[in-house]
Give the backbone structure.
Amino acid sequence: MIADEVSNTVRFNLPDDYDRNSGSATIVSPGSFELYAEEGTDGGSSFSAPAKIYIPVDEQDGGGVNEARQAIYAGIPTELSGSYTGTISVKLEAEVIDSTKRRVCVLTKIGTESSGDWQRIPFDDNSCGSYMDQSGSYEVTCQFEFSSISGLTAENLTENSTKSNVYAYFFLATLNSSGADTCEEDVSSPVSDITADSVKGGAFVQFYLSSAVPDADDDTVEIDSTISPRDEQAVVHIASADNISNSYKTIAYSIGSEIGAGSFPDSYRNSIHKFYPFITSGDLTVDDLTNNTTYYFAIASVNKFLFATKLTASHGVEPKPFEELLDQQQCYLLTAGFQNPHYVLDYFRSLRDNVLLKNKFGKIFVFWYYSTAPKYAHIIKNSSILSALIRLAGYVGYFLIKYFMMVLFVTIMLTFIALWFKILRRGHARGIS
């Protein structure tokens, strides 16, 4: 007997604050390996917009290759050794509207929506939990062996490749009249005849399997030679980070000492400080730091399969209280606006030292500035709008002062051209009259 066509449903729903550590999809044997997942449309309610789970695969038996070393955690439980090994756990939500005895069943296939046959994953009390015989919402965890997916073998995935035509369908089925314990008898016979239309209300999940690690020569992250301190933060200046395939996150590693570029991520899996949104260039603000403590940060990019680039060289930084940064840099308002070392700050400090402090009126201005500006610095620091306005003023002032002669020349030329056209228009008007 098939699942109810209208109201009983199974969905792959991620929590609102989802991150990879929610346990929504996990390799549970051998070892434990939490996976990246995407919810799909309405929890995977259609084959064309399924939920997605990304699984790293080591294409050689026994590990020890770069695929294992470039996973952000030690080794890869899913290996290719004649057939795929490993047990996957998928967390689902089931909605039951009556007291009919039901359970979640699993079908899998390799193919497309119009090709490939659905195959039943044998059911037992541990594969998708126990029976449900009351109306309400249930959290269901389904586990099954990759080796039970018919046709999924090592030959299907070559070195440095990705496979995306492996699907599972999770649905609610009722017991048949004889009380049989197999999902095969709950649906149609044979199982290969099942289509997306014959069992309603289920969740489609597409498995992406990959042995393709970021290329050591092409997919790298480069950071500038310094990291700037902030109050309980540090700013890593990323010069470039290649947009790796299926990019996911940028990772900050707190190494504890200086290291050169090129280390494997698995060697420092216990040194991961935090995951951040993936960026290709710009400033990465590393937070949750302790002031007056020295850190050595290295950076790597990671994709959805949790394969990472090799680490950058580590660079040291010592966060300091905001007041100390102000005292060190002594360009209060601009420091409050930029909140880390910047070429605009360097320029105005040079202007102060080499121009203003060289003459009487400049010294008077500097004295007045230092006596009044500090009390406004905290206000600016705590206001994103004021900080942005100060940065804008800093950029404008930097450009106007540094390029004064060019700005003056362009202004004079534009004024001359405007006057010339005005004279020409007047002469033309007189000729007509």
